[in-house]
Amino acid sequence: MIILKKLETWFDEAAPCIAEICLSAIGPADDCDSVALAGGAIALDGGENVAWAAEMWADGLALPDIVAQSGATSGEAGIALKFADRLDTQNPNLSGFLRKLADELETGT
Q1: d(CA 62, CA 64)
Q2: Which of the residues 17, 23, 52, 66 could staple to 56 if both were Cys, CB 3.0 to 4.6 A apart?
Q3: pLDDT in tens, 23-37
Q4: CA distance 105 to 72
């Protein structure tokens, strides 16, 4: 158990740095890779359902289906917007999806 506790402590300390490295590696070439790289950072920021929604988007699901199935709520719209802003130049496709998701979560339109 001591080893597991040390590993947990290490991960808690290292996770933000690892997430930042992953975010920095995102590019416009492959949306699936970008979602995989962004998912951990989004989840660490409290957006587990936003990360799940992004995975569904990368798999080709339509926005209404994503909203219905992801569990994302209006409380997570700000997280989606935060990462949309962050990824705007790195992957405009993913950024655009996150903006649409946030709008849908906020307004239901």
Answers
A1: 6
A2: 66
A3: 999 988 889 999 999
A4: 7
